[in-house]
TrEMBL record:
Residues engaged in binding FAD: 32-33, 232, 420
Domain of life: Bacteria
Classification via Pfam families: Amino_oxidase
Official protein name in the record: Monoamine oxidase
Residues binding substrate: 189, 337
InterPro entries attached to this UniProt entry: Amino_oxidase, FAD/NAD-bd_sf, Flavin_amine_oxidase, Flavin_MAO
Keyword annotations from UniProtKB, A to Z: Oxidoreductase
Family: Belongs to the flavin monoamine oxidase family.
Needed cofactors: FAD
Molecular function as annotated in GO: monoamine oxidase activity
Domain Amine oxidase stretches: 12-444
PANTHER family: AMINE OXIDASE, AMINE OXIDASE [FLAVIN-CONTAINING] B
E.C. code: 1.4.3.4
Classification lineage: Bacteria, Thermotogati, Deinococcota, Deinococci, Deinococcales
Amino acid sequence: MNPDIIVVGAGLAGLTAARRLSAAGRRVRVLEARERVGGRTHTLRLPHTGLSVDVGGQWVGPNQPHVMALIHELGLEVYPTYDEGQNLALIGGKVLRYRGLIPPLPPLVLADYALLSRRFEALARTIPLDAPWTAPDAATLDAQTFDTWILKNARRPQTRALMRLYAGAVFSAAPAEMSLLHALTYTAHGGGINGHTLTRGYALQDRVLGGAGSISQRLADDLEDVQLNSPVIRVEQNGTGVTLHTPDGQHRAEHAIFAVPPTLLSGLPFDPPLPPRRAQLQQRLPMGAVIKFMAVYDRPFWRDAGLSGMAISDTGPVTVTFDNSPPQGRPGVLLGFIEGAEARTLMDADEDGRRTAALGSLAQLFGDEALTPLETVQRDWTAEPFSGGCYGALFGPGVWTGYGEALRAPVGRIHWAGAETARVWMNYMDGAIESGERVAAELLGGLG
């Protein structure tokens, strides 16, 4: 029997939509191109230590209601990110120890950064989260890059470096790769800079016990029809339904939901073709570039030195680090992010080359003990063909104002979900879940 609705993509967005629709009595089939569920979340068990680690998305926070509610609904638990002790900052070749968000830079730099960040966040508060193209001065904000604005408004080079580190850590891209309107929109989704970058009370507060991948696995376990290794290669629709073609056959339903990054759809044949605005939008949303690297040690040795494991660096290739140890504290795990231009520099290197470069960065921050881990793991998300990169799509100048209206608008019987379409917490797990709930409600409202 044909399903009522087919969901393409077994990440958090697609599985959430499928679960809500199934609970409402609809027959739902999920098609996933990968051999696993989870999308941009993926929990691995390491071969040497047996430790489970998240090589994809991992953090949730109390200011993210959709993911926290779903975790509770599924019977999962969270535990706090370790953040006790001092942080490190490698700025201008010098390692600084500090507490809080901003390293102890010269007073004129701190004053400049305070003024710049207040001005940036004031602009962000003017952006409607679900329709950035309607913001006051949207055309002006969207006509320039984030970097153009930084260069114009930051008086000190160290201030510019801090804002560029923020862009790398939050967007996995350089500020020159996105419009100012996009940077403001994304920042507004988290309630400001702190919402994206701090732990206690914010988006980085907690991790999921057993790994973030367990959310998707629990969702999939509740569904009757999830088909893996089933990439969609052609889409047809008419007045009565949608036909999705995969290498193994055809799947017919009354409606289809695509819950994948929009850029992955730009080469997918649609019959009839998508409306020009939607098709052009998909061509204009490249993904960020990030390599996630973890080094596992017998114990978290940095804690002995009074360090939290959190660090920022303007040197690279690792520009941001965290203590990613399990809740019991052993073994010790240092997590390093290689983002934006740094990721592009290493994306053609082999695993040994990336490992050597990443461990060298960790040693600059935490000492030579960081050079001898028990094991390491890395995930280059730019090499994932069914993601195209991480953390999410980048809206360059002119994209929000020229094409934003097509982001969530259904095309006939085809509907759009995914973290890029979220009305809150865009490109986060919370946003992915919100988008799945939105599109399920959209369909249930239309179907009655």
